[in-house]
Specification:
The protein has about 80 residues and is an all-alpha fold. It is built from three helices and no strands.
Length: about 80
């Protein structure tokens, strides 16, 4: 059985520079991803955003409930005035 000598050379040849660079970037990317997950600077901004959203929802609900009561009050006043 004859073996192709190029297969052996290709299998044992060192990796190209582009392939080695790609392999060394992956651990760096994972380290950066872990550091980003541990970073808490954006959490404060997110909390302020949630608080602002909650205040907006509460004010819309209270103004609409107050509007219904005021509408009834003004209707009573309008009916009482001749």
């Amino acid at each position: 059985m004859l073996r192709d000598p190029f297969i052996h050379i290709r299998a044992t040849a060192p990796l190209s520079a582009a392939h080695q660079h790609k392999d060394t970037n992956m651990p760096t990317f994972l380290n950066n991803l872990k550091a980003l997950a541990k970073d808490e600077r954006g959490v404060t901004a997110l909390e302020y955003g949630l608080i602002a959203g909650l205040v907006a929802v509460i004010s819309v609900v209270s103004v609409s409930a107050l509007g219904v009561k005021l509408q009834g009050t003004f209707a009573a006043i309008t009916a009482a005035v001749p």
